[in-house]
Design brief:
about 90 residues; mainly alpha; 3 helices; elongated
Amino acid sequence: MARRVLDEPGEDVVAVAKLERQARRGPIARIALFLRQVVAELRKVVTPTWRELVTYTGVVLGFVVVMMAIVYALDIGFGALVVWVFSGSG
């Protein structure tokens, strides 16, 4: 069993310290931190080229059409089943 070096903080100590530091921040500081993080993430975004945009759009529209066809077929099938079950002649 390995011994933990006392100078290295454990994961639980780090997590508790982060929570305490976050609790001490005021609401304005938390909002400012959030906005800074949003801007930092938006800088990582890569804008697609025109060809990629057209390709992605075609894939999404194709997927939506296929899913609509599946839902339509299930709707027609279940509708026919319900009519068959509840249209007793007697």
